[in-house]
Amino acid sequence: RGIPVSVLTPPHKKAGAQVTLEWAIKALDHFERYLDCSYPFSKLDLMGIYDFNLGGMENIGMVHLDWDCAYIQQESITVKVLLDCRSDIVHEISHMWFGNLVSVKWWNDLWLKEGFADFITAYVMDQMKTDRKPGAHMLEFLESSYGSAIRNDKFKFTKPVRQTLRTSYDAAAMYNNLSYEKSSFILRSVERLIGATAFRTGLRHYFTKFKFKSANFDDFAACFGNITNRVSVGDYMKKWLNQPGFPIITSERVGNTIKLEQTRFTESPKYHTSQSWYVPLNYKKEKSTDFDSALIPL
User: Fold this and answer.
1) CA dist 26 to 19, 153, 210, 295, Å?
2) Phi and psi angles of residue 11, each rounded to the nearest 5 degrees, phi first
3) pLDDT tens digits for range 193-213
4) How many Å separate Cα 44 from the centre of its chain?
5) What value, to the nearest 5°, has the Cα angle with vertex 254 and ends 251 and 255?
6) Which helix (H) or strand (E) holds 86?
7) How many CA atoms within 13 Å lie on the side-chain side of 271?
8) Which residues pair with 165 in a beta bridge?
9) In this structure, are residues 121 and 58 in contact, taking their beta carbons and an 8 Å threshold?
10) Which residues contact 46 (CB under 8 A, 6 or more apart)?
11) Is residue 130 very low, low, confident or very high in pLDDT (cuts 50, 70, 90)?
């Protein structure tokens, strides 16, 4: 569409910058197609920052990257490092929509841009053909985000993804594995529950309604429909975002029925709470060839 994309580079790093430029152009194209929302700014610049301890940082129309990531030397790095650099580029470009086009009203909804960036990055990386099997990036993302979230969420005194923050001085506490990894696989589960088409329709509504504005969880949830007749996307997500921990499901056969119970999983077996979550469940009846689905508690 004629959007100028450039990589600001010292003369001796031009070859590496060309790799970053090609990848950034591809990422822009895939984001526009997936989100059905045009790139919202007049240009996109990328540049490397020497000794940059943040890894990446988005600004309106400008992405800052780690020096070695911005000026990739393909002949001297491993495939894993190359893919990580590409992923960083895609992640930061995603913030042009999740964070810049629509910002968050307050820091307690940081997950609304960071969780989305992680989830969308995996999806777009799969679409961009990186010499890996189809779906490999999403699978790796799910394994990584789920494992990281559980490791941090199993403790008795862990905090929820969404927390009450009185001042912006407390915002640094929100940059944690839960805001990134736990929220990203929650978003993935919403996509699976309502379907990819309905999920993308909700995102289009979200960007249309809040373009160049700020939004919070309630604003986001209102752009999506119901999962079942009784449970909305907002109801489902509140259970996972507003309380700490995650459930473990146990089943017991009682006559011709199956009894299901959920309790919060923690590293302390004697620690009990009255918490509950909406949990997707697939099951197959005897002599049936197909699986049915349900959301517990029913």
Assistant:
1) 11, 35, 26, 38
2) -55, -35
3) 999 999 999 999 999 999 999
4) 22
5) 140
6) helix 79-94
7) 13
8) none
9) no
10) 5, 6, 7, 8, 20, 21, 24, 62, 63, 64, 65, 70, 89
11) low
Q: What pLDDT shows up at residue 109? A: 95
Report the pLDDT value the prediction gives residue 1, as an integer from 0 to 100: 64
Question: Which contiguous run of DSSP H or E holds residue 150?
Answer: helix 136-153
Average pLDDT (34-42) is 94
| pTM, two decimal places | 0.89
Tokens of 53: 């301890």
Using CA atoms of 92, 97, 99, 105 in order, give the dihedral in degrees to the nearest 10. Answer: -170
Please name the residues in contact with 20: beta carbons below 8 A apart, sequence gap of 6 or more: 7, 46, 65, 69, 70, 71, 72, 89
State the Cα–Cα distance between residues 261 and 266, nearest whole angstrom.
Answer: 16
**Rounded distance, CA 49 to CA 126, Å?**
27
- Residue in the structure block whose two tokens are 């209102």: 222
Partners of residue 254 on adjacent β-strands: 257
Contacts of 115 (CB under 8 A, 6+ apart): 161, 179, 180, 181, 182, 183, 184, 186, 187
For residue 289, CA distances in Å to 144, 284, 285 come to: 32, 7, 8
The helix/strand/coil state of 122 is: helix
For the chain, what's the residue count? 298
With 0-12 / 13-18 / 19 or more C-beta atoms within 10 angstroms meaning exposed / middle / buried, residue 146 is middle
Residue bearing tokens 């995650």? 246
Rounded distance between C-alpha atoms, residue 120 and residue 126, angstroms: 10
